[in-house]
UniProtKB/TrEMBL annotation:
<keyword id="KW-0067">ATP-binding</keyword>
<keyword id="KW-0547">Nucleotide-binding</keyword>
<dbReference type="InterPro" id="IPR036388">
    <property type="entry name" value="WH-like_DNA-bd_sf"/>
</dbReference>
<dbReference type="Pfam" id="PF13191">
    <property type="entry name" value="AAA_16"/>
</dbReference>
<dbReference type="InterPro" id="IPR041664">
    <property type="entry name" value="AAA_16"/>
</dbReference>
<dbReference type="Pfam" id="PF00196">
    <property type="entry name" value="GerE"/>
</dbReference>
<dbReference type="InterPro" id="IPR016032">
    <property type="entry name" value="Sig_transdc_resp-reg_C-effctor"/>
</dbReference>
<dbReference type="InterPro" id="IPR027417">
    <property type="entry name" value="P-loop_NTPase"/>
</dbReference>
<feature type="domain" description="HTH luxR-type">
    <location>
        <begin position="822"/>
        <end position="887"/>
    </location>
</feature>
<protein>
    <submittedName>
        <fullName>LuxR family transcriptional regulator</fullName>
    </submittedName>
</protein>
<dbReference type="InterPro" id="IPR000792">
    <property type="entry name" value="Tscrpt_reg_LuxR_C"/>
</dbReference>
Length: 887
């Protein structure tokens, strides 16, 4: 029976009821040690009669072992992995040691967990419980959080329990605080536990509403101002100290052994001169329980483990680690190596080598955080400074792979010495540069990366090229001179013929530096033929194509790379590729598709912890909202981009300028756009393409002469882009600035060039401006055709303020409005619904769509069901007729 937990039980009941009805959910229970989180998990399991219940718990000493908690949680259902999509199955099986091969993208493991839970829920509701999340290995915790964030229409409930001092949950999952019992409830519990207690008031005061303290504290003992775990540890110290010495040694072995496997513990005990009878006093007092059928040893409470380790003399701890290291079989190399390392009292070459081998195995299965810890310890143990330095570099690399850039930087700083060999120094400088880039320290990051590449350029030009490609990316946010320095260094590298990065390097030089070079398609073909790692080696080239205006080529390549990233499980690169795809779709006049892909990219960037791209995508989404005239979403997204700083700021400024321009606030628009196009980052994609908006705002303020310099730069850019749509924008700008006798010819020329290479948004903007010019010249009948065309195009694009502006102008001419058009049929879809509907209309099954969008099949079906009435269709077969409006 639970005392005083009505509120918490009600929250759990709501979670289970929603999950049973097909609305999955996750909840984090947070509270101090002993407060009753485990009891609430037990209550949830008891209330889930007929459900499949999966359960696991973190163990403090096991936190360094990759995927330990996930292995424990999924052990009963691993026979179901064969039904997972190929990349997800491979990632999960390799990380759990069920199959050989290189580890897949670590975040695919989380998606595999999501899919597996969803598949299980097709047979009946599923409850997954994880206790002591604060001690879960980081890899398992990351996979569980990713799955929790993407739960949708599955009959799945996920409950995670963690300590209140474990820090806020980075996934942003809903939390339920579990606090001390109210005094009447605490008194009722104490009366149940100790009905004959002489002085209950003293015990209540000592326990302070903590249920475990009411059970464990010696009756009436005054523990002063100790925190809850301190009071409980003190109580456990007292209980253990009254046990025989041999029993205490047995308990220490059990406390240090992570898995609780009775077979391992019995072997370790025998090696220590102990037998099963020595454990009997602890069992009699209920300190632990041995389940022979399951082969498990479990403690009454995790704090008891900590208390046993804390109080044990050093000699006993070392002896216990030695015994445990000898007790593990060949199937547990990492556990064996760790215990051997923890038993070392000084430099130990053999223990260090074992730990390094185990670390390499962990890294090969995607356990990069565990591998980092093992390599770091191996380096400290090694008496050989060369090996120690090598293993430190491996620790740095593992930390970078795990996304722990601060840890990588700390290790690199400690190991970076001028007398280190060039390759080692290059690795360490690279890690420091990446960490600085993540913090937005672009100038110093660029210096470190450039220095790292220079150290190995002569002997290892291929790896140096990869570092310099990263340096180009960093330089893009540092300033144009830094970009040119990186491009010069890339061009000077002695890359051998046939190096897969050669075509990419040549294209970057042409696209970003203005020189001659291959086309984007040519660079792609040559790089693939030379064995480039796709999509990784082509990512930056794809984005760079937008700089000189190669939008159609970027659109084509980005579509291919996104598909390949999905199929190959290159999860970490998808936010970048989807952003480039969304930009190209926007410029091509497909804002609906751009919004879908940007929303997906933002979710993935959050999941993968990529602050650079979350900032970019907030700024980009602000622009999309500005074009639609959605003021509040635009300002919220822009504020988020400004808060991130750096990469997202140009798009955010353009968004705010466009929002003001569409609303007729020319002065405000001019201020935003002038700061963008005239600032130090005026070479960036958003800044260059915002110049026509700046010209329009300046003309409305009768300050057209102020935009002469940015317009001249834009003309040079358009000449280099050599695309009809770019020349059309130049003509439109000149038409705005020209005297009336020249303006009409410029407008007509712009419209003719738009017709050569249709871009609905820009063509409609030109038609609107031309129609306004004609109406102001009292040529109302002639103005109606371009204004009507503009209004219809804006409505199809969802650009409400611009459509209303065109309608107002059309009304002023006395002409009828163009009508709302088919856009109303799809306007109510969310980005995710829109994306799912488009894929379903192409004939993909729910399971295919789920694998592509990293959702569950049931969630896909749920979104389709919600979309049908919005689209006015009754079934999947009817979707084909609405596909043109969606596209």
């Amino acid at each position: 029976m639970l005392y005083g937990r009505g509120t918490e039980r009600a929250a759990l009941d709501r979670l289970l009821a929603a999950a049973a009805g097909g609305r999955a959910g996750a909840l984090v229970l947070r509270g101090e040690p002993g407060i009753g989180k485990s009891a609430l998990l037990d209550a949830a399991a008891a209330g889930a009669a007929g459900w499949r219940v999966l359960r696991a718990a973190g163990v403090e000493s096991e936190a360094r072992l990759p995927y330990a908690v996930l292995s424990q949680l999924l052990a009963p259902v691993l026979d179901r992995t064969g039904a997972l999509p190929g990349p997800q199955r491979a990632a999960l099986e390799r990380t759990l040691g069920l199959a050989d091969g290189p580890a897949g993208d670590r975040l695919l493991v989380g998606l595999a967990v999501l899919t597996l839970l969803g598949d299980l829920a097709e047979q009946g509701p599923v409850l997954a419980l994880v206790d002591d999340l604060q001690w879960a290995d980081p890899e398992s915790a990351a996979a569980l959080r990713l799955a929790a964030r993407r739960l949708g229409a599955e009959r799945v409930a996920l409950l995670l329990a963690t300590r209140e001092d474990a820090g806020p949950d980075p996934a942003g999952l809903p939390e339920l605080p579990v606090g001390p019992l109210a005094e009447p409830d605490a008194a009722a519990l104490l009366a149940h536990l100790a009905p004959g207690l002489a002085d209950p008031a003293r015990a209540l005061a000592a326990a302070r509403g903590n249920p475990l303290a009411l059970r464990e504290l010696p009756q009436g003992e005054d523990t002063g101002a100790l925190p809850p775990d301190g009071r409980l540890r003190l109580a456990y110290h007292g209980q253990v100290s009254r046990l025989p010495g041999r029993t205490q040694r047995w308990l220490l072995l059990a406390a240090l052994e992570e898995t609780g496997e009775a077979e391992v513990l019995l072997r370790a005990a025998a090696a220590s001169g102990l037998d099963a009878a020595d454990l009997a006093p602890a069992e009699e007092r209920g300190l632990l329980r041995v389940a022979l059928a399951a082969g498990r040893v479990t403690f009454r409470h995790p704090l008891l483990r900590s208390a046993l380790v804390d109080r044990a003399p050093l000699a006993d701890r070392l002896a216990a680690h030695r015994a445990l290291a000898a007790a593990y079989g060949p199937g547990e190399p990492l556990r064996r190596a760790w215990h051997r390392a923890l038993a070392a009292t000084g430099r130990d070459a053999e223990a260090a080598a074992d730990l390094a081998v185990a670390a390499a195995t962990a890294a090969s299965r995607g356990g990069h955080q565990g591998a980092c810890a093992a390599y770091e310890r191996a380096a400290r143990l090694s008496p050989d400074p060369v090996l120690a330095r090598r293993w430190t570099v491996e620790a740095v690399e593992a930390a970078l792979e795990a996304g722990e850039v601060e840890r990588a930087e700390r290790l690199a700083l400690a190991a970076d010495r001028p007398d280190a060999d060039p390759v080692t120094r290059a690795h360490l400088l690279f890690a420091r540069g990446v960490a600085e880039f993540w913090r937005g320290e672009n100038a110093s990051a660029h210096r470190r990366l450039t220095e790292a590449a220079a150290l190995v350029a002569a002997a290892h030009p291929g790896p140096a090229a990869r570092v310099l490609v990263q340096a180009v990316h960093v330089a893009w946010y540092d300033g144009l001179p830094a970009v040119h320095r990186s491009l010069d260094a890339l061009a000077a590298l002695p890359l051998p013929d046939g190096d897969p990065l050669g075509p990419v390097v040549r294209y970057l030089g042409a696209a970003l530096g203005g020189g001659d070079g291959p086309t984007l398609a040519g660079a792609e073909r040559a790089a693939r033929a030379a064995g480039a790692v796709v999509p990784v080696d082509l990512v930056l080239a794809c984005g760079a194509g937008l700089v000189p205006g190669h939008d159609a080529e970027v659109l084509d390549l980005a579509r291919r790379l996104v598909r390949e990233a999905r199929e190959g499980g290159a999860f970490g690169t998808l936010p970048t590729l989807l952003f480039f795809l969304a930009e190209a779709e926007l410029f091509d006049g497909r804002p609906g598709l751009a919004a879908d892909h940007a929303a997906e990219a933002l979710g993935l960037a959050r999941d993968t912890g990529q602050p650079l791209w979350t900032g970019q995508l907030h700024g980009f989404q602000a622009y999309l909202a500005a074009a639609r005239g959605d003021s509040e979403p635009c300002r919220e997204q822009a504020a988020a981009a400004f808060a991130r700083g750096g990469a997202g700021v140009p798009w955010a400024r353009w968004a705010l300028g466009l929002l003001d321009l569409g609303a007729g606030r020319a002065e405000d628009a001019h201020g935003q756009l002038a700061a963008l196009t005239g600032g130090p980052f005026g070479y960036q994609v958003a800044a260059v393409r915002a110049v026509p908006d700046l010209v329009e705002a300046a003309v409305r303020l009768r300050r057209g002469e102020e935009c002469a310099e940015p317009l001249a730069r834009f003309e040079r850019w358009a000449e280099r882009a050599d695309r009809p749509w770019a020349r059309a924008l130049v003509d439109r700008c000149h038409a705005l600035l020209a005297p009336d006798e020249f303006a009409e010819e410029l407008y007509r020329r712009a419209l003719a060039r738009h017709a050569e290479q249709p871009r609905p948004w820009e063509a409609a903007r030109t038609e609107l401006l031309y129609g306004e010019w004609l109406r102001r010249g009292r040529r109302k009948a002639e103005a109606r055709a371009p204004l009507r065309s503009a209004e219809q195009a804006f409505r199809l694009l969802g650009a409400a303020p611009w459509a209303e502006r065109a309608r107002a102008e059309l009304d002023a001419t006395g002409g009828p409005a163009a009508g709302s058009g088919p856009v109303r049929a799809v306007a109510g879809l969310t980005p995710q619904e829109s994306q799912i509907v488009r894929l379903a209309a192409r004939g993909l099954s729910n399971r295919d769509i789920a694998a592509q969008l990293f959702l569950s099949a049931r969630t896909v079906g749920h979104h389709l069901y919600k979309a049908y009435p919005k689209l006015g269709v009754g079934s999947r077969a009817d979707l084909a007729r609405v596909l043109p409006a969606l596209s």
